[in-house]
Amino acid sequence: MITVLRKTIIATVTALATMMSLNAAADTLNFSELPRDVVLTTPAVLSNATITSSTGDTYIDSLYSTNGFGAICGADGSTCEADLNIQFDSTIENLSFSIHGYGGNDSLTVMGYLGATLVNTVSLTDTPLLDISAWGQMDRLFLDYDGSDDYGYAFSDFDFTTVTAVPLPAALPLFGAALMGLGYLSRRRKQQ
């Protein structure tokens, strides 16, 4: 009887682990959803994120991306010297993206948030690709332009995994009851 229960528990745990590994999907920010090569008043609303600029303007560029989905920058007149806030519609992880347009006086601070909690931050200057997959889960990215009177930065080729909530399996309460039954049987055996 106990061997059958153990096999059932192992099968249930294996099924739950399989379901939890299916909770992520690869994704990107597709700037081709917006008009290209023009300055847009923010927010720039994509199918999976909303992007705002500290100046109120963004520029969508068609040249810089290697994935064909375009690039974005916080427009400040004719330069890309404004901060950007990217609010993802879902929690994400494994984020990396390309950075373009570094000039000698440009620097950038990248901050990742999950809700109101700062996940991590990094300051950089001339970095063509930023892989922050080690930061874990976040739902907002803030790109703080720290330079002065140079080119500014454009951002493209966002690659990340969208994390979706795994629904509670209907068998989970039954699994808990089976564990309690095993505990009861074990304690009863010891008393005899």
Molecular structure report:
The chain is an alpha+beta fold and 192 residues long. The two termini are 17 Å apart. The radius of gyration is 24 Å and the shape is elongated. The longest helix has 20 residues, at 2-21. The chain has two helices and 13 strands. A hairpin with a 2-residue loop joins strand 9 (108-114) and strand 10 (117-124). Helix 1 (2-21) runs antiparallel to helix 2. Strands 1, 2, 3, 4, 5, 6, 7, 8, 9, 10, 11, 12 and 13 form a 13-stranded antiparallel β-sheet that branches. It folds into two domains: 2-22 and 168-191, no CATH class; 24-163, Jelly Rolls (Sandwich), CATH 2.60.120.200.
Proportion of residues in β-strands: 35-45%
Helical residue percent band: 10-25%
Average pLDDT, rounded to a whole number, is 83
Span of the ends, CA to CA? 17 Å
The total count of helices amounts to: 2
Structural class: alpha+beta
Q: Write down the domain tally.
A: 2
Radius of gyration: 24 Å
Count of extended strands: 13
Under the CATH scheme, the architecture of the largest domain is Sandwich
Q: Major beta sheet, specifics?
A: 13 strands, antiparallel
Secondary-structure element order, as H and E?
HEEEEEEEEEEEEEH
CATH class of the largest domain: Mainly Beta
* CATH topology call of the largest domain: Jelly Rolls
Low-confidence stretches: 17-22
The backbone outline, from C-alpha atoms, is: elongated
